[in-house]
Prior knowledge:
By secondary structure, this protein is mainly alpha-helical. The protein contains eight helices and two strands. The protein has helices spanning 21-37, 53-57, 59-62, 72-75, 80-97, 104-107, 123-140, 177-180, and strands at 44-46, 100-102. It has a two-stranded parallel sheet with strand order 1-2.
Amino acid sequence: IFFGANDARLPDETNIQHVPIDEYGSNLKEIVKAFQNLKSKHIVLVTPPPLNEEQWANRDAQNGTTADDTDAKSRADRQNEITKKYAEKCKSVAAELGLKSVDLWESIDSSSENFSDGVHFSEKGSKLVYQSIVKIIGEFIPELVVEFTEKINSSSSSDLKQCGPWWDQINDNLVPDFINGSNKKQRTQ
């Protein structure tokens, strides 16, 4: 279960992805519970990784817009200082529930070579994520280890075909009740 990077976005009136940290922790517990109710044997929580703040803040310029980049960092809607707290919350939920966790916060550095835009993984970053997850599976669930021999790529530059809606196209009608439970939130779009 790999959530937290978007939840950790800074709150503002236009940001529907931000989730307060205590709610994030509660949501992780509910998601784990939903999988446990489905009799899932192996559940691993994955922390959000650090980000490259400068690369993310300058993404407008990278995309060809003419935004004034002198104050790019202050315009950023994500900060490592905040994301680290979400990574710690993820680890504490895993410990509380007796689950294993993959600590991407510690295993991936925020260098630009690990990210395509400061948040989404580059090919190198994707390989590090894969290696971190395979390591924990190998240690605790060795029968599930699979060797990946194909090119690994991030969703932002992958040749893989999309098989579902984008995050901002999901509404509560598309999310099964066993995930939402009675805590369905109204989303504004």
